[in-house]
Specification:
Blueprint (H helix, E strand, L loop, with lengths): L8 E6 L3 H7 L6 E5 L9 H14 L6 E5 L8 H12 L5 E4 L5 H17 L8 E6 L2 H5 L1 H5 L5 E6 L1 H8 L19 H14 L2 E4 L8 H14 L3 E4 L5 H7 L4 H17 L10 E3 L2 E3 L1 H16 L14
Parallel strand pairs: 1-2, 1-8, 2-3, 3-4, 4-5, 5-6, 6-7, 7-8
Antiparallel strand pairs: 9-10
């Protein structure tokens, strides 16, 4: 897997609103996606493309991952979205997000179009990534092929609202549990997306929670996908950003512990440590499996910019 880029919070910003585009630059989200799809009315899309190109070229985004969500391939807008945005600001763009991905062919089509634009405009071929959004039953059935459809794939994203409509789910509360179902109706969907993402070696991102002023409810929903292993979640309101950044990063204690495991195992397997395949860290036995688990937590902590508050000291004798 490529070096992990933190995507704990993925802020949606409507491309049709220049004020929101400017404000997003100062917010502490790991990623922003400038939206040409659902957040833009059909008549506003041409102007939104121009707004997004201008906002990207003006800079000021800091270390944020800069993504643009284009319209899906069943519409008449997709090719113009891609051409105008990448020709206008391709050097300032990290990824394109493709919504409502139904099959691998749609990802391959975007890859081919991107490659042509990059070649024609002197851009580095293959640098711009693709984020694939799963929002239908067909997309979920094909998610493994979608994940492997292009080397550009960087994330697989769950789009709950359209997915709920796609399968006829009897709920109008997006992303939350329902009192009439004795469990989590999204568990299978999230795990299927997560397995495809991990098999491909890319990140898995949970979708939005629409009750934007209820941060406590957002936290409860986010904790479930974070516990499964998701790397981040969409945020639709600045008030959700801090919660997402906290929940999708390890706790300080877990991060410190993971780094200690890595140091202790590295020492135990060395000549000085006796070339042991397992060792004790306090009262805990650690081995190669422990190292792999610790790498996950440490990687997320490092990507989030966390600093250690403890250090490993080899045992005497």
């Amino acid at each position: 897997m490529a070096e992990l880029r933190s995507r704990r919070s993925n802020l949606a910003v409507p491309g049709s609103n220049p004020r929101f585009l400017e404000k997003a630059k100062s917010l502490p989200a790991d990623q922003v996606f400038l939206d040409l799809e659902d957040a833009c009315a059909p008549l506003a899309k041409p102007g939104a493309r121009k707004n997004i190109v201008a906002a990207l070229n003006e800079g000021g985004w800091g270390s944020k991952i800069r993504t643009v969500r284009v319209n899906d391939w069943t519409t008449e807008w997709t090719y113009r979205d891609v051409v105008e945005v990448v020709e206008g600001a391709g050097a300032e763009l990290d990824c394109l997000m493709l919504p409502k991905v139904a099959d691998a062919a749609q990802v391959k089509a975007l890859d081919l179009l991107l490659t042509q634009i990059e070649k024609a405009n002197g851009l580095e071929v293959g640098r711009i990534g693709i984020e694939a959004q799963i929002e239908t039953a067909q997309g979920l059935i094909n998610v493994n092929d979608i994940a492997f459809a292009s080397d550009r794939i960087e994330t697989i994203i769950f789009g709950p609202a359209d997915f709920m409509a796609s399968i006829g789910m009897r709920s109008l509360v997006v992303g939350a549990l329902h009192p009439d179902y004795p469990g989590d109706p999204f568990h299978h969907i999230l795990m299927t997306i997560l397995m495809a993402a991990r098999a491909r070696g890319v990140q898995a991102i949970d979708g939005p929670f629409l009750q934007v002023r209820d941060v406590d409810a957002f936290r409860e929903v986010a904790k479930r996908s974070a516990m499964l292993g998701f790397d981040g979640k969409w945020v639709l309101h600045p008030g959700q950003i801090d919660a997402a950044n906290e929940i999708y990063a390890p706790s300080q204690a877990d991060y410190d512990h993971a780094e200690l495991i890595l140091d202790a195992y590295d020492w135990a397997t060395s000549e000085a440590g006796g070339k042991k395949g397992s060792a004790m860290l306090g009262d805990e036995m650690i081995d190669e499996a422990s190292r792999k688990m610790a790498l996950v937590i440490a990687g997320k902590g490092r990507a989030a910019g966390m600093s250690r508050t403890s250090s490993f000291t080899p045992p005497e004798g």
